[in-house]
Design brief:
One of its GO terms (molecular function) is pyridoxal phosphate binding. With 445 residues, the chain is an alpha/beta fold. The protein has helices at residues 13-21, 58-61, 70-83, 93-105, 119-134, 151-156, 187-200, 226-236, 289-297, 310-325, 328-349, 389-400, 422-441; strands at 37-41, 44-47, 52-55, 112-116, 138-142, 172-175, 205-210, 240-244, 268-271, 283-287, 353-359, 362-367, 403-404, 406-408, 411-414. The chain has 2 domains: 35-68 and 327-441, Aspartate Aminotransferase, domain 1 (Alpha-Beta Complex); 70-325, Aspartate Aminotransferase, domain 2 (3-Layer(aba) Sandwich), CATH 3.40.640. The chain is built from 13 helices and 15 strands. 50% of the residues are buried. The protein binds pyridoxal-5'-phosphate (PLP).
Length: 445
């Protein structure tokens, strides 16, 4: 075991224990230095020193309901008391009613759901279902994408997080992205490239898997015609369209799902994060009746002990009911429009803001050290940790101003809880206004 690094006297007991006994995610362990958090209320949370932050990224773009959704907390407690766990072979009311609810809120005929406990598991299930249904093995996904950390989902992930896991599963093929600001390929041209790819792969591709609006790789919103055409391309080549809605789903975009923004129903959709508002670990993979029917006669060779965990499903059901009862999807659309306007004002005021983009409460601020040439701030030396140090510094400066904002690959990712109000947005944008002075000062001049 490596020698224990010296501990700062300023660390709390929780921070010291955590540092010593917990493996940090996606990090050099020597750099892991977590801040203790003690609670949250609405769109804010509080750290161990009592400092309060506006949660402008909804933690990992998942706390869509904020930190005090009592109906969800009560549903969890009730289910845990009445029957915390029954094996997936039993039907529970929570799972059955959540299945029915997902058929109601997802588009088109999507109606039968496999439940799991995370986004990565939802994607693993989607890959297996697509392969079994089509009898084909290849999955086409895109470079600027994230689909999870387990063997299959990291293999179909395109960003540098996949590199340590390579070669990954066979048959994972990457295509270019609709990234108007930073790619030399026009988004619609990138589609024709995918069309050609599928033609050249012959009849061997099971599915095209995309985030309808790319999340952690920089909030990439394709043109209106992109997703409908992508579905057409997939079907022309006998492949399915899988939409990964793990981050874009459940009101984030001001619609129920990212694919609703483009009026497209995929063949398979994956969900997690906002599905339970992050009150419980819950993932889901929903399919059309045609795909579900296929498994009447082919063994669905997949499952987990915690598939359809009653407590997680109770949380999911209460979360979806809360989106509906509190009209949070429409609210996200309304306040999302003014958030977009406020971010454009930031872009006008700060030369280091290269681009702001997004829909609803799903927005990104991409930084640049040279706006004319659109040059990103430098990459990290290891090339695997995503993002530049400048974007980290901007996020740290925002935290000093009382706003927590996530960042990846030169982009600040803004995805607050849906109940956020205009005054909260004003407060958070004022903090970003101060924080962006850090990137302005780091530009090439
Ligand atoms: N898919 C997308 C689009 C994601 O953004 C994520 C996580 O950020 C995942 C899948 C993986 O989800 P999880 O971290 O719950 O495994």
């Amino acid at each position: 075991m490596a020698e224990e690094p010296p501990l700062s006297e300023e660390r709390s007991e929780v921070e010291r224990l955590d540092k010593k006994y917990v493996f940090g995610t996606w990090s050099f362990q020597s750099e892991v230095d977590p801040t203790e958090v003690v609670g949250g209320e609405g769109v804010r949370f509080t750290d161990g020193s009592g400092d309060e932050f506006i949660d402008f990224s909804g933690q990992l773009m998942c706390s869509n309901l904020g930190h005090s959704a009592d109906a969800v907390a009560d549903a969890i407690a009730k289910q845990a008391q009445e029957g915390a766990y029954f094996a997936p072979g039993f039907a529970t009311e929570a799972r059955a009613r959540l299945g029915e609810k997902l058929a109601e809120v997802t588009p088109g005929t999507l109606s039968k759901t496999f439940f799991s406990t995370s986004g990565t598991e939802a994607v693993e299930a989607a890959i297996k279902i697509a392969r079994m249904y089509t009898g084909k093995q290849k999955i086409v996904s895109r470079y600027r994408s994230y689909h999870g950390a387990t063997a299959g989902s990291i293999s179909v992930t395109g960003d540098p997080r996949r590199l340590k896991a390579e070669p990954g599963i066979p048959g994972a093929i990457k295509a270019p992205d609709p990234y108007a600001y930073g790619s030399t390929l026009d988004p619609m041209e990138s589609l024709e490239y995918i069309d050609e790819m599928l033609m050249l792969e012959g009849d061997t591709v099971a599915a095209i898997l995309v985030e309808p609006i790319v999340g952690s790789n920089g909030i990439l919103v394709p043109p209106e015609e992109y997703l409908p055409r992508l579905k057409e391309i997939a079907h022309d080549h006998g492949a399915l369209l899988i939409c990964d809605e793990v981050m874009a789903g459940f009101g984030r975009t001001g619609e129920w799902f990212g694919c609703d923004v483009f009026d497209v129903t995929p063949d398979i959709m994956t969900m997690a994060k906002g599905l339970s508002g992050a009150y419980a670990p819950l993932g889901a993979t929903i399919v059309t009746p045609e795909i579900a029917d296929h498994f009447e006669d082919e063994l669905f060779c997949h499952g987990h002990t915690y598939a359809g965990h009653p407590v997680a499903c109770a949380a999911g059901l209460a979360a979806v009911e809360t989106y509906q009862e509190e009209n949070l999807i429409d609210h996200a659309s309304e306040v999302g429009d003014s958030l977009g306007d406020r971010l454009e004002e930031l872009a006008d005021a700060h030369p280091s803001v290269g681009d702001t983009r997004g829909v609803g409460l799903f927005r990104g601020i991409e930084l640049t050290r040279d706006p004319d040439e659109r040059v990103p701030f430098g990459e990290r030396e290891d090339k695997i940790s995503t993002g530049s140090t400048v974007v980290d510094d901007v996020a740290a400066a925002a935290a000093d101003e009382g706003v927590y904002v996530a960042n990846m690959i030169n982009t600040l990712i803004i995805a607050p809880p849906l109940p956020i109000t205009e005054p909260d947005i004003d407060e958070a944008v004022a903090a970003l206004d101060t924080a962006l002075e850090v990137s302005d000062a780091a530009m090439d001049r």
